[in-house]
Amino acid sequence: MSLRPDPLSELAIPDGTVVEEHDLVVDGDVLVGGQSTIEFGVRGRNVVAGERTRFGGHIEAEGDCRLDTWCRVADDVLVGGDAYLGERIEIDGQLVVGGDLDIGDDVQIEEGFEASGWIVIRNPMPTVVFLFMYLTHLLRIGENDAAGELVEELFDEDEESDPLTVPQGATVSDDAWRVSAPARIGRDCRLHGNIRAESIAVDEETEIFGSLRARGDVSIAERTTVHGDVTTRSGTVTVGDGARVWGDISCEHLELARDATVDGTIRARGEVQTGVLPSDPDGSPQ
User: Fold this and answer.
1) Between these two residues, 226 and 163, which has the higher pLDDT value?
2) Helix (H, G, I), strand (E, B) or coil at 153
3) Per-residue DSSP letters for 129-143?
4) Can you give the pTM of this predicted structure?
5) Distance from C-alpha of 20 to C-alpha of 24, rounded to nearest angstrom
C-alpha cells in the first residue's frame, strides 16, 4: 500500500463513481477535509468528515461514520456500523446507528436518534484531527507499515475500492466541483457539474456533464466524454483516442489523438500535435 504524506492532498474520485438524483454514490470510503461543502447526499462504505463540513443531503454509511466538530447534515444520517460525532454537530433529520454511538457535547438532532449498541455521550478530541495527526506522525517517522495497518483498520480498505477524497475547503455541487488542489477522476464515472482544480486527469470511459477548468494540465483519457468546454491557463490539454469534447478547448499546448473529437473551437497559444498517442491520467504517455 502506498500512502501520501497528506491523505487529502487532492480531489480523488474512484472508478465507478456516479451522481444519482443528487446523491454521490461510491463503493468505497468517503473522506472529506474540513470546512468543505458537499451539496449532494453521500452514500458509501465508511464516511469521515473534518470539522465544519456541510452536507446538503443525507449520509448513508454501510460501515462507520465519523463527523468532526461543527459539522452540519441537512437530512438523515443512516449508519450500518458505529457512529462518532464531535461536539456541536447539527443533523436536520434522524440519526439511526446499527452499532455503537459515541457523541460529543451540544449535538442537535432534529428528529431524534436510535442506536442498537452502546451510547456514550462525552466531549472527545475531534476524531478526524486525531486520526490524521497520528497518521501523519507515523509517516514522518518512517512507520509506513504501521500507517498502512491503521488505514486498513479504520476504513476496512481493500485494493478493489479506493476511497473518494475531498480536500479541505472544497465545494461539491450540481453546479461545480471547486478545489484548490489537483483533481483525479477514475474510469467509468458519471458526474454532473463543472470541475475546477489546479490540474485535472480523467480516466477512460467517464462522462462529465460540465466543463473542465484548470491552471495546469488537463488529461482526458480514451473514450471519455466531456459535455462542456476544456480550459487551462498555462498547461497542456491531452485528449485520448475515442474521447469527445462537446465544447471549446483553450490551452497553452494541445495533444489530440487521431480518433478524438472536438465539436467546438480550439485555441492553443503554443504547440498543437494531432494524431499523438493518448496519455495516462497522470499525464505520462502510454
Assistant:
1) 226
2) helix
3) HHHHHHHHHHHHTT-
4) 0.82
5) 7
